[in-house]
Sequence to fold (234 residues):
Amino acid sequence: MNPKTVSGKIYHLLNRGVDKRKIFLDKEDHLRFIHDLFEFNDANPVADVLYTFTNTLDIGRPKVRVEREPRKILVDILAFVLMPNHYHLLVVPRQDSAVSLFMKKLNMGYAKYFNEKYDRSGALFQGKYKCVAIERDAHFIYIPYYIHLNPLDLKFPEWRKRKINNYKKVFEYLESYRWSSHLDYLGKNNFPSVTNRKLLSEYFGGENGYRDRILEWLKEIDLEESEIKSCLLE
Fold:
């Protein structure tokens, strides 16, 4: 059972496709979900507006000027990553009930889009979602790096056992993977309107500090012994 969420605390949210099925099949699916991270992060009803999201900087930018109420942000999204059959979010809710409302809108909205596009019906996600409170400093230290390094599973799965031979190629691959907040923390605008990076940027020591620390973490982390073991998708 997920914990009751409290405003101001940090939570790791994750979910995956039912029967481990892929939930992102092409570029449009990735962009749609990232668009939904922005659009559904609002206590107001979803506006009936067509948004452009074919370009990285167009997330949250309407095609035409419309009158709408100012956004009432539900959660500050600190970090995210989309993988073929699951996703990870690191968030701070602004109200006690904000996480459940945001996740309901996000999962239902994306599932509706996906089912209509691929002419399918039924549940897209495996259960509701998993929510883990970040309660210890050691957990907080590990989780942002873990989220951003998830794409290595697709090409360098040996990273989890600290058996990487070429760190240059690993970092080149991470910088070619658009579907996370990693590039924004490196100072390369990718989806800047989706995340609130102030807290983690200060912790990392800015863009250069982030690059140095994620490399250090990649070399030293032992996932079997770390505080984030309980957060791994089995």
